[in-house]
Write a structure and sequence with these properties.
A hairpin with a 7-residue loop joins strand 3 and strand 4. The protein folds into three domains: 55 residues, no CATH class; 147 residues, Galactose-binding domain-like (Jelly Rolls); 176 residues, Rossmann fold. The protein is globular, with a radius of gyration of 24 Å. 28% of the residues lie in helices and 22% in strands. Strands 2, 5, 7, 8, 10 and 12 form a six-stranded antiparallel sheet that branches. By secondary structure, it is an alpha+beta fold. Helix 5 packs parallel to helix 10. The longest helix has 18 residues.
């Protein structure tokens, strides 16, 4: 196993390999962050092999103390840490220590009995350091209360790059879970140089930032700023991210990455057309906004006249606060014919037609329509078993085509 104890671990090598190294008298300069600390730990580990149980236990405590002293604990409100790609940020007391503050994000709009407003798809913690060891402590909170949907897998980047193994999640895959602290041990280049680290929060869980821990004496610098263009993507569960395997697989995240934009994700599972949401979006800083809405209106059997009134009202409310911001209305995606919502008594294509007609009637040069029906091939292989949701392959195709359609 790898040492991951929140209280004392700084090991960057698997525990079995470190102990094996002690057995044969070897050493690793970077196993515990620096050569002197490593030598102290190796000496103590060797002692464990020849001591009675009581004294061995005491020596193990000493090993833990050595490891703890090698870490500098940096709270979430330290100015060396920065945050981006969020809707709203607040400071709340840490559950570990009420005298310390942690970062909590939310997205303004609440979803009754779900808590999706506390999910923050793509919000980022960012910092730049030369530390040889970096551990990020996150609090998976009680705010996401849905009993039907949860996806808590986030990703991290080092110098803008990631891979399939650089992920984190809660300890349980159950839809309902208790709050917990998750410590993410980042893979750090062992070259003594400055590197930029970004923790990208998951799309389907409520996660706060507690602190980071780095090698004692590590230096920090300001990371490069995020891209200037802020794109707000509003919609339902598809924009929220369901059911990608992680935040990195969602169409919103992928599209923003392809366009080199900062992403503000306002997708909320179960959302249908609502004029009031246009007013809320108008209050969020944005250089452009995309809207993908309508499939839940179709699933719920909303009359076309009511849908038209909602779309027209949404755009009008948005334009009060943002008269010139480019707005891209994406019509609903194709849905495999195997999906038969019991209340869907109108063809989905009729809802697409309403959006096109509503936008055309406004004669607004800043409001545009994108054909969602053509963003993913009409093949069930690109969709989840809940067939209104694309899978990773479908989201990849969608993001590439959407990126081409956007400016």
């Amino acid at each position: 196993m790898t040492i991951i104890s929140r209280d004392w671990s700084v090991a960057t090598k698997p525990l079995e390999e470190v102990v094996c190294c002690a057995l044969v008298g070897g050493s690793w300069p970077n196993a515990f962050g620096d050569p002197e600390r490593n030598a102290d730990v190796m000496t103590l580990l060797r002692e464990l092999l020849f001591l009675p149980v009581e004294r061995a236990a005491l020596s193990l405590v000493l090993v833990m103390s050595v490891c703890a002293s090698a870490l500098d604990q940096i709270p979430a409100d330290d100015p060396r840490l920065s945050y981006s790609d969020y809707v709203r940020l607040t400071w709340v007391p840490s559950p570990d220590d009420p005298t310390q503050r942690m970062v909590r994000f939310d997205r303004i709009i609440g979803i009754p009995r779900k808590g999706y407003g506390w999910d923050n798809p793509g919000a980022r913690l960012r910092f730049r350091t030369d530390a040889s060891v970096v551990t990020v402590s996150l609090h998976y909170s009680e705010k996401h209360i849905s009993t039907s949907a949860r996806k808590g897998r986030g990703i991290y980047l080092v110098d803008g790059q990631t891979n399939s193994g650089w992920t984190f999640t809660s300890s349980t895959a159950k839809t309902v879970r208790s709050p917990e602290t998750v410590d993410v041990d980042l893979r750090t280049p062992q070259d003594g140089e400055m590197h930029t680290y970004e923790i990208v929060l998951p799309y389907g869980d409520s996660v706060d930032v507690l602190r980071i821990a780095v090698t004692d004496g590590a230096l920090f610098a300001s990371p490069q700023p995020r891209p200037d263009v802020r794109c707000v993507m509003y919609g339902d569960s598809v924009t929220h991210g369901f059911t990608a395997t992680s935040i990195g697989g969602t169409y919103a995240y992928r599209t923003a990455a392809l366009k080199n934009w900062q992403l503000i994700n306002m997708g909320l599972g179960g959302r249908s057309s609502r004029p009031v949401d246009g007013e809320i979006l108008a209050g969020i800083e944005a250089d452009l906004v995309t809207v993908l809405i309508g499939v839940n209106d179709w699933q719920g059997g909303r009359p076309l006249a009511a849908f038209r009134a909602n779309i027209t009202g949404f755009i009008a409310a948005f334009r009060v606060g943002k008269p010139d911001t480019p707005l891209y209305m994406i019509t609903p995606l194709w849905v495999p014919p195997s999906w038969h919502p019991p209340k869907a008594n109108i063809e989905l294509g009729e809802y697409r037609k309403v959006i096109r007609e509503a936008v055309a009637a406004l004669r607004d040069p800043h409001t545009h329509v994108i054909d969602g029906d053509g963003l993913i091939d009409h093949d069930p292989a690109f969709f989840d078993r809940v067939a209104v949701h694309p899978n990773d392959a479908g989201f990849k195709m969608m993001s590439e085509r959407l990126a081409e359609a956007l400016p």
